[in-house]
Each structure stands twice: as structure tokens, then as C-alpha cells.
Amino acid sequence: MNSENECPECGFPLDCFQLSTCPKCDGGELHHHLRGVLEVDIAHCGETWELAREKIADALDQALSKQYRGLKIIHGYGSTTGRSIIGPRAVAYLRHLAEQFGGRYAPDRQNRGASLIWLNR
Hints:
The protein is α+β, with helices and mostly antiparallel strands. It has helices spanning 30-33, 49-65, 86-100; strands spanning 35-41, 68-74, 104-107, 114-118.
């Protein structure tokens, strides 16, 4: 499997932040192959835990299929009510998914109501 800094079609080394096509094979999907972080809010439209869990699973499927480097889930921390229903369950589920898919779980350093799964490839 090619690394992040290689063309997915021919393996030519490249700087993914400056090129949209490979200078060797003219592959045109580099922007698609080297995406950043997919961000999804699962807790601020009146979601139940079941719906939030489905949103996480759908987002992970999308992040994996479109080759994102990571998935950021905004799950909230209970700032309005003083307690979070979805947040703790989402964190536990994200930890499980990270382990299951060979990724790494991390809390978001800028938002205590969000967590990340880094998708290691």
C-alpha cells in the first residue's frame, strides 16, 4: 500500500499539499486520496443515542471509503443541561471503533465536546 506522500496509482513521491495531479503518471485523484478530517455533528439536532450511533457509523464508512485521514465527531459535553447523554456513549463507541479499525482515538484539544479517530493506513 502506498504512503500518504506517494501517488496512489504509481507510487511516485510527491507533496500532497501542493499537487492535485501526479507529475509522473498524471493521476488526477490526489486530492481525493489525501483528504484531511471529516467533521460530523451528532448531538445538536435533538438526536437520540440510536440516531447518533448511526451517524457515527455512517461517517466512519464515508471517512474510510473516501480515504480521510481522520474523523471528528462533535458529540457535546452537556453545556446546556449540565449533563451529556450522547457524549460519554459516543466516546466509548469511538474508542471501540478506533481499536476495531486500527485507528487511534483522541479527544479534541480545542473542543471538549468533540473527539477524533485518526485513521492509520
